[in-house]
Sequence to fold (876 residues):
Amino acid sequence: MKDVGIVSYGAHIPRLRIKSSDIANAWGKNPETITSSLGVIEKSVPSPDQDVATISVEAARAALARCNIDPQDIGAVYVGSESHPYAVKPTGTIVGEAISATPILKVADYEFACKAGTAAIQTCMALVKSEMVDYGIAIGADTSQAAPGDALEYAASAGGAAFIIGREKIIANINETCSFTTDTPDFWRREGRKYPAHGGRFTGAPAYFRHVISNAQNLMGSANSKPEDYNYAVFHQPNGKFPLRVAKMLGFTPDQVKQGLLCPIIGNTYSGSTMLGLASVLDIAEPGNRIFVASYGSGAGSDAFDITVTEFIKEFPHEKAPLVSELIEKKQYVDYSTYAKYRDLLYED
Amino acid sequence: MMRDVAIIGIGVTKFGELWDKSFRNLMAEAGSKALFDSGISGSELDALYVGSMSTGRFIGQEHIGALVADWSGFAHMHIPAIRVESACASGGLAVRQGYFSVASGMNDVVVVGGVEKMTDVVGDEATDTLATGLDQEWEAFFGATFPGIYAMIATRHMYDYGTTREQLAKVAVKNHANGALNPYAQFKRAIPLEKVLNSPMTAYPLTMLDCSPVSDGAAAVVLCAADKAKNYTDKPVKIIGTGQASDTLALHGRREICTFDSTVYAGKKAYEQAKLQPKDIDVAEVHDCFTIAEILAIEDLGFVKKGEGGKAIDEKITTLDGKTPVNTSGGLKAKGHPVGATGVAQIAEIVMQLRGDAGERQVKDAKIGLTHNVGAVGASCVVHILEAI
Amino acid sequence: MADGAVPRFWREIPQRYNLIGNQCGSCSKIYFPPRESCPYCRRKSMGKMKVLKLKGQGEVLTYSIIYNAPEHFERQTPYPIAIIKLDEGPKVTAQIVDCKLDDVKIGMRVQSTFRKIHEDGYIGAIYYGYKFKPIEVK
Fold:
C-alpha cells in the first residue's frame, strides 16, 4: 500500500474574543469558579461576516499557500461542521469555487458533531489511497452555537483547519486510523432549531471518555504503540479539563498534550477543535516526531490517528500562512452585548 | 443653426414632507403655477418633459410622461410627453431635453417639470432607492451607502487639501441661513455650526446635518423660442449655455477622487456656449446633496481653485453678499431635495434672481446665473447658464 | 437589490470570490471587474481581452465609517468602507475588516479576505465576496 498523509495544512481563527468572566458576569455567576471549573479563560467569536464557509475558505487558502499544488489537481473537498451556513446547500461548493478547484471535484458536507472534520480526513485518505483522487482537502470548522445562559456558552467558539491529503511530498504520514462509534445521544441539535441541547453530566463518562479511551486503545493496539512512543497527543477539547483527564487515564503526560491544547484560550471550536490542535503541533513538529490524535463527536464516536512527521517538514514553508499561535495572538475583545448582537442572541429560537 | 431659447414661466411647490400631497398633486401644482406665470393659455404647448428619478420604487408607478400629461390636463391635446431619468440630475436633464426641442425648431413652447414623491415609502426604502444611483454591483453590494461614497470624497479632500469638518459644516450653516429666507424651503431655519458638528454621524466624516433631507416637491418651467418670448412675458430669461457630461458610475473608477470630471466638462461646454468665464457668474445654484458636494462644485465649476473650496467657505465668498453667492434658495441642504424636482427648481431659483423677484434673498444686480445638477456621485452632470434679457 | 435575485449574484462569483479581472491584449491595461472590451483600444481589443486573477493586495485611497446602513448591513455597523487601489492598477470599493475603526488610514496596505458580504434575510441566500484586512508588518 502507498503512503498517505498530510501534504499541507492551514488554519483560521476569528480575531474577536470574549472572556469567560464577562459571560459569567452577564449571568450573575462567579467568574473565578466558572473559569477554573471549565478551564476556559476566553474564546474566539465570529464577527457577523464570518461563518463556516469563510473560515473554511481562509483555512483552505492558507493550506494552498504553503504548497505548490495546482487547485485544479484537487479532486475532493469535504467540509465537516455542525454549523454549516445552510441546512441545505453545501459549504463545500463555496470552498471549491473560492479556491478555484471546481468543477471536476468531489464535494460533500459532513456532520458528526465535533468529529466531522476528522471523518473528512478519513474519507480523503481513502480516496487518495485508492487513487480516485490525487489530493483531497479535509476541513473541520465551526461557529458553534450556544443558547444564552447555557453552560456551553463559555466554550462554544469559532475556528477551523484544512488538511490537504495526498501521496507525494507528505509532511506527516498517517500510519493508521480507526474509529469507535455507538448510538449515544449525549448532545444534539434538532433540525430547524437554533441552539443545541445536551445531557449534562451524561456527556462525560459514557460519551466522551468511553469513546475516546476505547478508540485510543484500539489504535495503539493495532499500531502496536504505547503512549510514551508519541511526542505529542491531541484530543478533542470541549473544555480545558476533559483532554487532560483523558490523557492521564490513557497514560499520556500533560507535556505531550500541551502544544495541541487550545481550548483554554480559544474555546471549543467543535469540528475545528482536534484539527486546530493537530495544526498547532505541525507548526513546531520535527522529522520523526510521532503524533497521537483522537477526536470525539457527540452522538457518539471517535476517530484516532497515528501520525509520523517526515523529512519534508523541514522545507515546508510555514511562513506563507499564519501559524496557529499567531492567529491566537491576534485578538480584539468584545463585551457580552456586542457578542449578543454578533451571535444573533437577541432573536428567539 | 440652433435658435435661442428663453424661460417664460416658473412654478414651484413647497418642498418638504408633504403628507397630504400625492405625486400627481405636486406635479400638477408646479405645472399650473408655471403656465400661469408664463402667460400662455396652455393650448400653445407643443410638448411636455418631466424629470423623475425613481417613481417605480417611490410610488410603484412608471409611465410617468403620460401620467403627468394626463393630470396636468393635457391628455385631450395628445401632446408628446417624455420622462427623463439621470438619477438626481433628472430635472436638469429634462430642462436640457426641452431646450433642445425648442432650439431645434421642432417645438415653439414646451413645459418641463421635475418631481419626486419620496415619503410614500417607509424605513430605509427612500435611502435605499437613492443608492440605486450608485453602482449596485460594485459599490452598494459591498456595503457602500450614498452618504458613504460622498464621505469618502470628503475624507480624501481633507487629506489632500486640509479641508476641515468645520468647513464642511459651514456649508450647511450658510445654506440653512439662505433657506430661512425662502418661503418654499423645507427647513426655514438657521442652524449654528455646533449643531451640525454634533449631530449624529451618518458616514464619517459626514454628520446627519451634512446631508440633504428626504423631500417631496415639484418644479416646472415653460420654455419658448426666444424671439416669441416677449409675446408672453416682460421678463424672459435666456438659456445662454448648456452642458452635460458623464463619468464612471462607480467613484472608484475615476481618474481622481476629489474632482467630478462630469462637472468640469459640463461646465466647460456651458461656459463655451455662453462665451463666459466662471468669474462672470453672479449667482449659482449648485448640487449640495452633501456639504462636501458644494465644496467640490465650486472648485470644479472654477469659482475657486481646486482644493480651496473649504477656504472659500471661511472667506464667505459664496454667501448671499459674497463674490459669487451660491445656493441662495437654501440649496438641496435646506430647501430640500426631491431628487427629480431639484434640477428644475434650481432653474426656477435663478430665474427669480435674474428677474429680481427673490425677495429677502435677492442678489444685487444679478444678471448671469448658473445651475449645476449632479446625478448620484457625479456619474452625470448638467450645467445651465441663464441671462436676463 | 431585489430579494431572491440569485442569478445576479451567481454570475459574479468568479469576480467576488477570486478577483478575476481581465487585461487588454492590445495596451495591457488591467480591468476589474472584467470588461467586454478596452475603453481605450475599443476595436483593437475585441477578442483580445485575457482573463487575469488579481493578487488582492493594495492600498487604501480613501475611506468612510458607515454608521447608517441598509437593513442587511445593520448588524455590521459601524464599519469602514474604502476605495482600494490594487497593485495591478484597478480600484475597488470594499469593507476593511480585522482592525479597529481608528486604525483605518489613507495609504495603509491591505489584502483581500473572504467574507460574508450580506444575506437576504433569514431565509434567502448568503452572499460572499471580498473584503480587505491590513497586511501584517512582521
